[in-house]
Amino acid sequence: MPTDADLANLASDLRLACMRISRRVRFESANVLAPHAFSVLARLGEQPRTPRELADIERVSAPSMTRTTTALVERGLIDRAPDPEDGRCVILSLTAQGEALLAQTRAARDGWMSSRVATLSRAERDVLREAVQILAKVAEQ
After folding, report:
1. Which of 35, 58, 87, 97 has its CA 20 to 30 A from that of 41?
2. What is the rounded CA–CA span in Å between residue 106 and residue 104?
3. How far is 32 from 105, CA to CA, in rounded Å?
4. What pTM was estimated for this model as a whole?
């Protein structure tokens, strides 16, 4: 049976490994699109949203989200439209250029990860397939 120390060490090692991979993947395309901007595009790729919804999802302040979305509007990556249900609000959505950049960034990130996974043995890739399921379970808790 694992001890509290064993569990604490595993939790720490796992957290650090996930954090390092996440950082590397995020910053592979940072010269084209900052990580926080990519996250906003990804959320808008799911569905149009209000700035308040985005701020809540991303856990940032409304002024911070306003700065991010304004920059994305200026780059032509997202559009603002009046909310048909509440004229005081706006709805943000991806432009065609935003959709293209989102797809390009995802492909670059997937390519980065694929090139690393390709260097692993078949047995290691099998372990990763199992780990993906376990990590998804941990993330859902």
Report:
1. 87
2. 6
3. 8
4. 0.80
Length of the chain: 141
Q: Please state, in angstroms and as integers, the Cα–Cα distance from residue 45 to each residue in 1, 19, 96, 123, 130, following that order.
A: 45, 24, 11, 35, 28
Tens of pLDDT along 44-73?
A: 999 999 999 999 999 999 999 999 999 999
Q: Structural domain boundaries of the chain?
A: 4-140
Amino acid present at 9: N
Angle at which helices 96-117 and 35-46 cross, to 10°: 110
Alpha-carbon distances of 29 from 21, 49, 106, rounded to whole Å: 14, 24, 9
Question: Count of CB atoms within 10 A of residue 38's CB?
Answer: 19
Does CATH place domain 4-140 in 2.40.128.110?
no
25 and 70 in contact (C-beta within 8 Å)?
A: no
CA angle 75, 31, 107 (to 5 degrees): 90
Q: 124, 132 in Cβ contact below 8 A? A: no
